[in-house]
Amino acid sequence: MPPQVDAVDPDTQVITVGIGGNDLGFAGILKDCIELGAAHLGRGTPCKDKYDTQLAGRFDELRNDYDTMLGALQAKAPSARIFTVGYPHLIPENARLCQYGNLLQFATFTAGDLTWARTRILEPLNQVIERQTSARQADYVDLYSGSAGHSVCDADHWLDGVLTSVVPLKYAVVHPNAKGQAFAARQVEGTVLGS
Predict the structure, then answer these.
(1) What are phi and psi of 144, to 5 degrees?
(2) What is the pLDDT of residues 108-144, one digit of tens each?
(3) pLDDT tens digits, residue range 84-95?
(4) Residue 107 lies in a domain
(5) Taking a C-beta distance cutoff of 8 angstroms, is the pair 126, 134 a contact?
(6) Is residue 165 one of the residues assigned to a domain?
(7) pLDDT of amino acid 83
């Protein structure tokens, strides 16, 4: 696929942007956390131990990349309203709600690493997106607060874990399901219409 910025032109009036996690390397971290959690039999914080010191540099790079991306959109569509979309509550406040080894949740991620990922990756990621958005006078759509209680590990989950189903085998790799997508659409629509 060509860069999506190529679809934007001076006549564009509304742009929504939902990126950041993959730029931070979340997919690779997720994979490693699952492998390290299995190797440590669900104990400790092996993923935090591996990645925590790298996060500051990754977030610095993300800030720069996000600002560059927003600047490119504003240059190509100077009249457009830009709405950036944050990330929902992927991980519950109490990581012990997640069942170790459950492929419909976070597989073999340790509880300690889940708490670390929520507080040191997910929440700061949303803060970076919100701050960069504000600095460019664009609008931020908060999915995090309204999706509390609907994480991958909650009974009424709006996000699927590593898998959506075991039989048949369907990968989700921690993405919103239909309920999560509907919630995100309502939040974006409410922000666009309310601005």
Answers:
(1) -70, -55
(2) 999 999 999 999 999 999 999 999 999 999 999 999 9
(3) 999 999 999 999
(4) yes
(5) no
(6) yes
(7) 98
What is the secondary structure of 36-66 as a DSSP string?
HHHHTTT-S-HHHHHHGGGHHHHHHHHHHHH
The reply to whether 6 falls in a domain is no
Side by side, which strands form the sheet with 81-85?
14-17, 81-85, 139-141
Alpha-carbon distance values, 184 to 9, 51, 83, 187 (Å) = 25, 29, 12, 5
Token pair belonging to 85: 């979309």
Residues 78, 192, 175, 1, CA torsion sign = negative
Is residue 81 within 8 Å of residue 14, measured between CB atoms?
yes
Write out the residue range of the structural domain in which residue 143 sits: 12-194
CATH at residue 16? 3.40.50.1110
- Provide φ and ψ at 40, rounded to 5°: -100, 10
Distances (CA, A) of 163 to 88, 102, 152, 176: 18, 9, 11, 12
Please state, in angstroms and rounded to a whole number, the distance separating the CA atoms of residues 169 and 19.
Answer: 26
* Global pTM value: 0.95
Mean pLDDT across 72-85: 97
